[in-house]
Amino acid sequence: QVQLVESGGGLVQPGGSLRLSCTVIGRVFSLNVMSWYRQAPGKQRELVARIEFDGSSSHADSVKGRFTISRDNDNNAVYLQMNSLKPEDTAVYYCNAEVWLVGGSAWNDYWGQGTQVTVSS
After folding, report:
1. According to the 3-state scheme, what is the secondary structure of the chain?
2. What is the mean pLDDT of residues 98-109?
């Protein structure tokens, strides 16, 4: 009923930038918190940034000052602008959204398919 479609990953040199996008499509009545997570090989998935419907946001200490999360409520989209990328940012990045479906009765959690970000020279 709902899909989170991600784009924007790729290979970038240290110090470079990437912008990830995630659009929620399907029978969406409303979106609540939207987040970006990442998972590096051999590590647990970790929260990178989250943003409320009103735009208030928080970022992991490891990315503060370098990454910025934003959202477009009219288009059911969330973005992650990543600047000054480091090799340790290499991971699969996942979009997450709390969704109230049309005709639904509760918030449900949905995940994107993941997009690979590789930072290497």
Report:
1. CEEEEEECCEEECCCCCEEEEEEEEECEEEEEEEEEEEECCCCCCEEEEEECCCCCEEECCCCCCCEEEEEEHHHCEEEEEECCCCHHHCEEEEEEEEEEECCCCCEEEEECCCEEEEECC
2. 95
